[in-house]
Amino acid sequence: MTGDYEDLGLTPEEELDLEADWNLPLAFTKQRHTEKIEGTTTLTQTWRMKERMKTVSVALVICLNVGVDPPDIVKTQPCARLECWIDPLSTSPQKALEGIGANLQKQYERWQPRARYKQSLDPTVDEVKKLCTSLRRNAKEERVLFHYNGHGVPKPTVNGEIWVFNKSYTQYIPLSVYDLHSWMGTPSIYVYDCSNAGIILKSFRDFSTQGDKPTEEAALNASQTSTSSLASTSTTAVKSCIQLASCGPNELLPMSPDLPADLFTSCLTTPIKIALRWYVLQNSGKLISGLTQERVDRIPGQLNDRRTMLGELNWIFTAITDTIAWNVLPRDLFQKLFRQDLLVASLFRNFLLAERIMRTYNCTPVSCPALPPTYQHHMWQAWDLALDLCLGQLGDILDNGASFKHSPFFAEQLTAFQVWLNYGSIDRNPPEQLPIVLQVILIYAVAAKLCYYQQVTMSYKHVH
C-alpha cells in the first residue's frame, strides 16, 4: 500500500497516517442512510373546508297574480292565504305583491345580508331571462340563488316547465327548466315553492342523465336559445346544482287556514316563527294554559340576542338542526351543505324543520342532493322540551314582567358529553353532542376575545 503513495512525494510517516485514515470505518452506511428519502404520509384534515363559497346574488321570482286562482287547483274554503306573512287580499293586488316581494327579501337578508337581491314580480319569460343572466354575470364564479313562488300559476309540467305570464297577464307561459339552467349557470341553488314541485327535480335528474343533449321531447319544448346553450352544458354542472322543492311530484301544498300559504318558504326563511305557530297548533301547545298565537307573537327579544327568549330559542334550534345533520348525513355531504356556504347551510338546517312540519300535512319536501329522513330524529324531542320550558314562562313574563329563566339545554348537552368522555367504551362512536359542544366553545371563545379587546381599549384610553 505504501508504494502507491510514492508519486505523491509523501514521507514514510505521512504515508502511514494516510493509510490509517483509509482503514477507518465508514459512517452513514446503514440502510436508513442509503434508502430513498420520502416525505411522511399524513391524513388530510377532511373536516376543514379547502374551498369555501358564497351566495352573492339572489333572484326572487314571485308568480301570484293576486285575486286570480290558477285553473288546475281547487282551493278549500277557507284556505291558507298568507304569503310572507302578508294577507294579499287585505289591500290592492299591486300593493300586496310589492309588500310580499319586500318581505321575502327581508327574510332572506336575515341569513345573507350582503347578497345582491333582485325581485321579479309576476314576470314574463324575457324578464326572468334578463334577471338570471344579469345576476350570473355579476356573480362570476360564486353561487346564485333562484327562489320561485308559483302559487298563482299552474303546476309544473311533466316536460320540465314552470309557468310565468305574458305581458298582458292574459296567458300562462311555460318556462323550460333547461332554459332556466342555461341562464343561471353554475354554481346555483334553486328553491321551488309550488304544488307538484318534485316534478322539477325529476326533470333536472333526467336532464343530467342525458349527457349534453336533451331528449327529443324536451328539445321540442325548449326554445332555440336553450337548445344551442345546452350543447355546451356538461352533466357535471347540472349535477352540481342544489335544489330544494316544497313537495313531491304528486303532492299539493297544505291549504289549512291556520298555516301560511307559503309554508315551505316560511320554514326556510322564518323557522322560529313558523315553529312556534306549529307548536301552538299541536296538542303539546295545549298543555300550557292561555297559550295562543297572539301571545306567542309577542315573545320578547331579538333573534340575534342570545340573552333573550327569542334569541336563545334560535340558538338552540341552530344547534339541534346542526347536530341532526351531523349525525345523519355522510361526512362529505355534511361538509358540502352545512360548512361551505353560510346561506346554503341556513337553508338546509331550516329544510329539516320543513320536512318535520310539512309531513304532518301529507307533504314531503324533497332536495337534490337527497337527504335521508330526519323528521323522527330523537333530537327533535330536545327541541320540543326547550319550547315547553321557554313558553311555560311566557305568561308570567308578559303579564307580570318576570325575568326570563334560561334553558338548561346547553348545560345538559355538556353533561352528556362529559359522561361520554368518562364512561364511553374504547370502540365508541363520536358523541352526538359534538356540534353543540363546539358551538358553545366557539361562542364563549368569541365572548372572551371581545372582553379582552374591550379591556385593551379601556386601558389604552386610560393611558392616553
Description:
With 464 residues, the chain is α/β, with parallel strands linked by helices. The chain is built from 19 helices and 8 strands. The chain has a 6-stranded mixed sheet with strand order 2-1-3-6-7-8, with helices on both faces. It has a two-stranded antiparallel sheet with strand order 4-5. Strand 4 and strand 5 (172-176) form a beta hairpin. Helix 4 runs parallel beside helix 5 (177-184). The chain is extended.
Compact overview of the structure:
Helices cover 47% and strands 9% of the residues. It is an alpha/beta fold and 464 residues long.
In the predicted model, the low-confidence regions spanning at least 5 consecutive residues are 212-220, 222-234
Which shape, going by the Cα principal axes? extended
Kindly state the number of beta strands. Answer: 8
The Rg value, from CA coordinates, equals 31 Å
Elements, N to C (H/E):
HHEHEHEEEHEHHHHEHHHHHHEHHHH
Main β-sheet: number of strands, strand sense, barrel status?
A: 6 strands, mixed
SS summary, helix count: 19
The average pLDDT is 85
What is the CA–CA distance across the termini?
84 Å
Strand order of the largest sheet: 2-1-3-6-7-8
Subunit arrangement of the protein? single chain
Percent in helix? 40-55%
**Structural class estimated from helices and strands:** alpha/beta
Assess the beta-strand content as a share of residues: 5-15%
